[in-house]
Each structure stands twice: as structure tokens, then as C-alpha cells.
Amino acid sequence: MQNIEIKTSLPNPEATLNLITQLGAKPTWVHQQRDVFFNVPAGYLKLRCVEGRPAELIAYQREPGTKPRPSDYDIARCEDGVALETALTRSLGIRGIVQKERQLYLWQHTRIHVDQVRDLGTFLELETVVKGISIAEARAETDQVIAALALDSDLFLDRPYLELLDRENSGVVSPSNLRQNS
């Protein structure tokens, strides 16, 4: 599957939540998520665990950069996330763990995630799913949501939370330099 996505820090979450409501996005759920990332030769492989739901093994790759960009992904659901995590840890090793509270809103083909990431702060992710629409239409929809939410492209990020946490834990990151140009 494919989507067009961006990730951005969110300096004023309340104002953004108001704009999400004004856009007409439908609040869908709020969950605590634990993403365990494994060592892989290309892209990313994570096991997402959410209490009361089947675990999801998610493999993905995305183009570098901070602009809205394609991400290709596959998702496999698993009833026994603990056993899968044990097997993957044994064979691949854990690269890192990301814990967050995620609020999901839906608007047309776009998933709007407002994430409170442990040890990092509040972020927003847009994922416009390229299903039933062309990639050009998905890009246009992403641009429309970016404009409606008044998102500042200077705050767009070029890396997943895992790598932001790696940099934070190494003492490299401050709120003013979360974004690294690639």
C-alpha cells in the first residue's frame, strides 16, 4: 500500500485541534501505542502493540526529505504480539521502542494523527492513503489539509520518531533543531 505523508512538530496542539474540528475531520479513537522497531537491512520494521487489539507488524520505506512524500508499507496483523516480538527480537534484535498516545481523525482519504510521544513532545502526522485515488489526487488532498491546518513547512520533519529519540538520547536534539535537512 502507499500513502503521502508528512510529520511535523506541533507547537500549539490546542489551536491545531480546533482547526482539525473546523476541517470536519471525524475523531475516531485515542490509543496508547508501543512500537518496537527491529534491525533490518532496508527501511523500517516495527511491531505495533495496542491494548485490546491485535498486534500489527508494519514494514515501510519512504523517500527522504521534509516535503509531503510517498511511503510504501505492508501491514500484517498478529493475535500473539508477545510471541512475535520474542521471535523477532531473537532473530533481528531491537533497534528501539517508541511509546505514544495517538489521537486519530479521518478526513476523506487522510488520516490525521496527533501524537504525544514519550520523551519527545507533541507531533502531527498526515497520511493520505492512495487507494481509490491517484497519487496526484493524494498529493493535492495532503496539500489541502496542510493549508487548512495552517501547518508550517519549516517544522516538517524528515525522520521517524525512533530516530528523533535516538538523537534526543544522544544529547543532539533540542526543540529548535528537531528537523535535520537531508
From TrEMBL:
SMART domains for this protein: CYTH
Protein name: Class IV adenylate cyclase
Coiled coil: none
Every CYTH domain range: 1-167
